[in-house]
Design brief:
This protein has 306 residues and is an alpha/beta fold. It has two domains: 175 residues, NAD(P)-binding Rossmann-like Domain (Rossmann fold), CATH 3.40.50; 121 residues, Orthogonal Bundle (N-(1-d-carboxylethyl)-l-norvaline Dehydrogenase, domain 2). It contains twelve helices and ten strands. Strands 5-2-1-6-7 form a five-stranded parallel β-sheet, sandwiched between helices. Strands 3, 4, 8, 9 and 10 form a five-stranded mixed β-sheet that branches. A hairpin with a 4-residue loop joins β3 and β4. The protein is globular. 44% of the residues are buried. Bound molecules: NADPH dihydro-nicotinamide-adenine-dinucleotide phosphate (NDP) and ketopantoate (KPL). The site of ketopantoate has 10 residues, from β8 and α6. This is 2-dehydropantoate 2-reductase. It comes from Halobacillus seohaensis. It catalyses: (R)-pantoate + NADP(+) = 2-dehydropantoate + NADPH + H(+). Pathway: Cofactor biosynthesis; (R)-pantothenate biosynthesis; (R)-pantoate from 3-methyl-2-oxobutanoate: step 2/2. InterPro entries: 6-PGluconate_DH-like_C_sf, 6PGD_dom2, ApbA, KPA_reductase, KPR-Related, KPR_N, NAD(P)-bd_dom_sf.
């Protein structure tokens, strides 16, 4: 497949490199600073699943340098979404589908509105990865799964092709029969997990030591379930229990990508995740006091610089 990575950060560089390792044609569409870093330091994966040094990193700084592509793997942070639209449009016009793997939900209607419903595939990633000071990927989780599926019937063939590409690559990748439900399910989980770890500035093990604090995650999961339900997505009590059990089972030192960003003094996706949930709740007059409180606690750190 010919895959353009737009957002060659932790996720984009990781999955792009894995596809390249499997023999696919991967182009990194990047801005000036990242282009310089990639040219100077190359692209390396330091991963529990096997280190890899990309032999030939194809870097472009404009979509005009890309004649055509099958897929754009969109992995920017929520606060950078709007800046990608003008680069996505010409690629979509030349036939590419877009697979966004951002956490959250608000990006989907925005992309569908801007690019057309046929262009936007549903996707999400389960991985813990970050970039080090050289711009190399550090992957620390025992999982590196990509889940995707059609949001429009015309996307079935490309999802099948992508399934094959993922099977060839060193990653977990699978097509979901109900990707929208999966995205909501992850949205529920990440709102609780990233919320509590970022607000307290602690990894999950330390939070679990304080039951009064840990129970907040359950309350957020419940609020997010109700939010999904009023949007006609069948997230159930059982999904809440599974997510809560998952939070109980995570390794003590495990934390969210948003908390990692807080530790690094980087901007935070709190508005895309928690702010987005509150806006979706407002549309249905849904009261979400725990999500609202966590959102308010993280807000002062949103644009924190170390
Ligand atoms: N990291 C993780 O473990 C996980 C992250 N996620 C989600 O995936 C998404 C991406 O996260 P992550 O990979 O960590 O983010 P990173 O910050 O590591 O990477 C985002 C990249 O996007 C680039 N970028 C931003 N705007 C543009 C643009 N207009 N054109 C080109 N490149 C651009 C940035 O480059 P520049 O240097 O130019 O700013 C940066 O390299 C988020 O929504 C996150 O919540 C989901 C699961 C796990
Ligand atoms: C929960 C996790 C680690 C799963 O991929 C994640 O998505 C994040 O922290 O952003």
């Amino acid at each position: 497949m010919k895959i353009v990575v737009l957002g060659a950060g932790a996720l984009g560089a990781y999955y792009g490199a894995r596809w390249q390792e499997a023999g696919h044609d991967v182009i990194y569409l990047v801005r000036e600073r990242r282009a310089e870093q990639l040219r100077k330091n190359g692209l390396h994966l330091h991963s529990e699943k096997g280190n890899y040094k990309v032999p030939n990193v194809q870097i472009v700084e404009s979509p005009e340098q890309i004649e055509n592509a099958d897929l754009v793997f969109l992995s920017v942070k929520g606060y950078h979404l709007h800046g990608t639209i003008s680069w996505l449009k010409p690629l979509v016009q030349r036939g590419a589908k877009v697979l966004p793997v951002l956490n959250g939900m608000e990006h989907l209607p925005i992309l569908q509105e801007e690019l057309g419903e046929e262009a936007v595939i549903g996707g999400l990633a389960y991985i813990i990865a970050t970039l080090d000071e050289n711009g190399h990927v550090v992957h620390t989780s025992p999982f590196h799964d990509l889940v995707f599926g059609p949001l429009h019937t015309s996307q079935q063939p490309i999802c099948e092709e992508l399934g094959i590409a993922c099977n060839q690559a060193n990653m977990g990748g699978k097509q979901s029969p109900n990707i929208l439900e999966d995205i909501w399910n992850k949205y529920m989980f990440i709102t609780a997990f990233s919320g509590i770890t970022t607000a307290t500035n602690l990894p999950i093990g330390d939070i679990r030591k304080s039951p009064q604090t840990f129970i907040i995650t359950k309350r957020i999961l419940e609020e997010m379930r109700k939010l999904a339900n009023v949007h006609n997505i069948q997230i159930t009590e059982e999904h809440v229990e599974v997510a809560f059990e998952r939070l109980k089972g995570l390794d003590d030192e495990m934390t969210s990508s948003m908390h990692q960003d807080r530790r690094k003094g980087l901007p935070l996706e709190v508005e895309h995740l928690h702010g987005g949930a509150l806006r979706l709740g407002d549309e249905h007059n849904l009261d979400m006091p725990y999500t609202q409180t966590i959102h308010a606690m993280i807000k002062p750190y949103e644009a924190f610089q170390k």
